[in-house]
């Protein structure tokens, strides 16, 4: 008879290879027997599981819906808690497992939420930053100031790989602009101190922050695009400094829209039918930048004919980018599609009215015990389901 320890080691290897975007299979496996549950709830297994997969999976994406709760669309077996549906909240950002919500009509304008653990943090306004905070999305306030906000893990890459950031600490970076005089404004909030930093400013003629654009984070620097896509504001949170980087006009490539970061560089996208162009930018000292064309993606063989039929350059654009897993969202007249840049796989995930996508990437390992407590599936049915998944995984691993 084979020793139980060897059997457990074999099952640990099998469980490690279950897809990271299928957390339900791991929960079901833990409900089969005490032995499997012990393996999956072991902190050492969770660390090994994250290390094996390398990048946090995309569990879904968020977008704002008119006169409705902020919408979460799952792209995996993960389902968020019903208590996270809140009307009047505008989704501003999603990064490192945290979603940032904005409710300007309330005394506490910002909320941060971990969709996996269902932890909530209230972020109160600060009198010295009142003019930046109380702005309603899509409209300008009486002072002509508008902003965007970015949430990020407060630990640097030396202390955190951003694969298991649940529980904080986190930072909130607020970057805005004033119409008169072209002034960039910025401040940051720390969940550790519950304090806002002093507001800093920088004059830049004609600058206007794009409050509906995507932001990017590289280290301790936050990058925010301008409305005309001709420049990017760099906010160094650690040094409390602002600078402006000009975005080059590349002949024949259309507008370059900031969509995120990849390999420590900013990633821009432009669509010129029927191709998607991806560009990278590495910021240097004093606002200097090195540019390179990263990739050209032919859209005709990937998207259905109706998505490209009679389309103009303004009818399709990059609506979002899932960092780490290299999945880009394209908004077309036929709907919202994801393109996995590594495999070329395409899926339709939404309708054409969705204009901005904020992917949610995170591992669910930290919340397994909590999910198991609310799982009411019967062990026999659960066992049959997970055994089928295990057979499929083993078959794929052996190449059979």
UniProtKB/TrEMBL annotation:
It comes from the Eukaryota. InterPro entries: F-box-like_dom_sf, F-box_dom. Residues 6-45 form the F-box domain. This is F-box domain-containing protein.
